[in-house]
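Late entry, evening session. Most of the bench is empty. Finally got around to the prediction I had been postponing all week. Sequence below, unchanged from the version circulated by S.P.
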Amino acid sequence: MQRLGFVTLIGSEHVAADGALLLSSLRQFGGDISSAPLWVFHAESTLPGAFDFDAKDVHPVSLELEPTPHGIPFGAKVSACAHAERYLAGEIETLVWINPRALIIQPPVAFQLDQSHRAALRPVHIKNIGSPIDQHPDPFWQAIYDFLGVDGSLNSVESYVDLQRIRPYFNTHMFAINPKLGLLEAWLDAFKELTEDDEFTLEYCADDLHRIFLHQALFSALLTQQLAWNQIRILPMEYSYPLHLHDTIPLERQAKSLDELICPVYEDTFEYPRTLNGLSASEHLASWLRSQPGASPAGSGTVQSGRE
């Protein structure tokens, strides 16, 4: 059994180049994890041509991605995660979900789970729809807690950019989880049930933010339902560091260079150096980025939204 494997979703052609850049960075800078297999889920009707499915230890998996009721975003992602868990539970011990719009700059050893930790992930970058720990949960969060039978008052996390103390609310751009838990399958079941519930969606997901981040809220609540708090590893800031928010991060929390990060993330198509948002990079790393087919030179390429 492989100890660790990566899973991503290529939903369209324009994301394929980002996925190729991610794979290249893993193989170049992943250290002992550099040879880990990567399963690439994609729509049955689309085989992204920019991605090298012939590369060693890259496994394409076609998946019929059905529209989510009421147009709630990220249904394809939740479905892909559940399918990956079901598909890989007998093959790997740690499933690392990673959005294509990420880089691996150093060996991501904190992804590897152990006997003490069943999941590893980062809190959200900003509070957004998060629930302040010093206030009663608002109707949206309370409805989710009631639906899952969760007590949301016991633990808290801090959003990295705006330093807000909130109830457990995790970013899902990347995370590691034990696939034997069945938590991703439970995520899909809960997501389907709530998005098919007209009363819930009309009452609690009437605005864009609650529609966009419903999947993250559900995932966060499920983690606190199914795992003890000490079974969740909070990854350090070098993981999921948001390049797109770099200039809004408090100065004392800003990375000093790209080289000190492990798995930074970004939105929109990667363009060097624009995507770094003013963050410096060593000549070695900058030269490598410039050499990558997926790293468009500044000012070229089509910008596509990757909001998450």
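Two things to note before I forget:
The longest strand covers residues 2-10.
The radius of gyration is 19 Å.
Will write this up properly tomorrow.
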